[in-house]
Amino acid sequence: MSIDLSLEFTGIRFPNPYLLSSAPPTESESNIMRAFEAGWGGVVTKTIGMHPVVNVAGPKTKFLRANAETGTLSMNKGRAGVLHSSWNWELISDKPLDWWVPRLARIKKAFPDRILIASIMAGSGSDKELDHWRTLARACQEQGADGLELNLSCPHMDREDMGSNIGRDQQLCSFVTQVVKEAATIPVWAKLTPATSDIVIEAGAVFRGGADAVVSSNTFPSLPLLDPESLEFEMNVDGLVSSGGLGGPAILPLSLAKMSQMTRAYPEKSFSGIGGIADFGHALNYFLLGCGTVQVCTAAMLDHAVGPNVIKKLLADTKAFLEKRGLSGLEAIRGTRRDRVVAHSQIRRPEDSDYRGGHEPQEGYAEPVAG
Ligand SMILES: Cc1cc2nc3c(=O)[nH]c(=O)nc-3n(C[C@H](O)[C@H](O)[C@H](O)COP(=O)(O)O)c2cc1C
């Protein structure tokens, strides 16, 4: 049976379901070209905005690793140990729209069959800000972008009317989506923040605003750890830190929980899954819960900046998985585990005969004492 990884998602034809998410791997023309050469089916550009952006003085991203021998978790003990997460406080692209415009056109001309999604972000507090969304949307689609992803989820914005502050407010995120939909002729995806108590509410709001897909998760709000020797945050500028975003392996189960809530609430809608994906086993979780495409950031950053080995292995392992099961594509399994997530009360309890009323041979989780 011949295997075909191509798929239709929100009306766009993707050569495969694997995208680089909006982040450093997609911050430049050369990176995006390299990503397409490596085999990624699509990319979402680093978020483009209308406001000048200046990042903090110092590193913008670090990687937290766990040392199995000592049990320590640290960002500053070299590359030894197992990757736990990425932590960043990087803002959106520091390149203005004028810089992006000719590059978007060149990328699309060089790779017409690969999918270029432009991530865009503006505020929501005034007509001028709403016009920024329209300007960004029109400029990107005029250059040939296949779709738009609305950044309603940047976790480190002081402005009340931007980023995850929009994503947390159902009225605002619905309205902003509607404003962009009215200006756009291409599909519009909404990237939501996981930092909210019930993400189903915001998903419903952006769908009501006309979103063609929901994308989740952006990074989770978090702090770097304090160094037990220096008593300084492992990442700081002049001793100070602010809330940043956690990505990578640590957020895979957290992000899946958010995704599962949304795909169960809206089984007919389109979802693009992000969070902790480094290999096919991770991506498969998102497909089984109902996602059509998935996106990768941290794993790609650690593999030659754009993940050439990550995508090669994703494609090979996806094909091997389908071959083994005699399937021609991923559509056959998409969403097939969505309904296995149920209310706690629906989980079977032990039979009466198994109930020992506290007289189990062993108490709790304690290991039996040796000897
Ligand atoms: C350094 C860095 C910068 C990021 N910048 C953006 C951004 O500009 N826009 C955006 O929507 N998400 C941004 N993200 C979030 C990622 O696209 C992605 O949602 C998140 O890292 C989770 O995926 P991962 O676990 O594969 O890293 C950034 C992440 C990192 C680590």
What is the number of beta strands?
16
Number of continuous helical runs: 10
Listed once per kind, the bound small molecules are: flavin mononucleotide
How are strands sequenced across the largest beta sheet? 3-4-9-10-11-12-15-16
Overall 3D form: globular
Give the overall pLDDT as a whole number.
Answer: 94
Biggest beta sheet summary = 8 strands, parallel, barrel
Question: What is the CA-based Rg, rounded?
Answer: 22 Å
Proportion of residues in β-strands: 15-25%
Structural class: alpha/beta
Order of helices and strands: EEEHEEEEEHEHEHHEHEEEHEHEHH
- State the end-to-end CA separation: 58 Å
Uncertain residue ranges: none
Helical proportion, percent range:
25-40%
Describe the structure.
The chain has 371 residues and is α/β, with parallel strands linked by helices. It contains 10 helices and 16 strands. It has helices at residues 29-38, 97-110, 127-142, 164-167, 170-183, 199-208, 252-265, 280-289, 298-301, 308-325, and strands at residues 7-9, 12-14, 18-20, 42-44, 48-49, 61-66, 73-74, 82-88, 115-121, 147-151, 188-191, 213-216, 220-222, 244-247, 271-274, 293-296. The strands form 3 sheets. The protein has an 8-stranded parallel barrel with strand order 3-4-9-10-11-12-15-16, surrounded by 7 helices. A 5-stranded antiparallel beta sheet has the order 7-6-8-14-13, with no helix packed on it. Strand 9, helix 3 (127-142) and strand 10 form a beta-alpha-beta unit. Helix 3 packs across helix 5 (170-183) and helix 7 (252-265) packs parallel to helix 8 (280-289). The longest helix has 18 residues, at 308-325. The protein is globular and about 70 Å long. The N and C termini lie far apart (58 Å). The model has no long low-confidence stretch (mean pLDDT 94). The structure holds flavin mononucleotide (FMN). Flavin mononucleotide (FMN) binds next to strand 8 and helix 9. Flavin mononucleotide binds at residues 21-24, 46-47, 60-61, 86, 88, 90, 92, 119, 151, 191, 218-219, 247-248, 251, 274-277, 296-299.
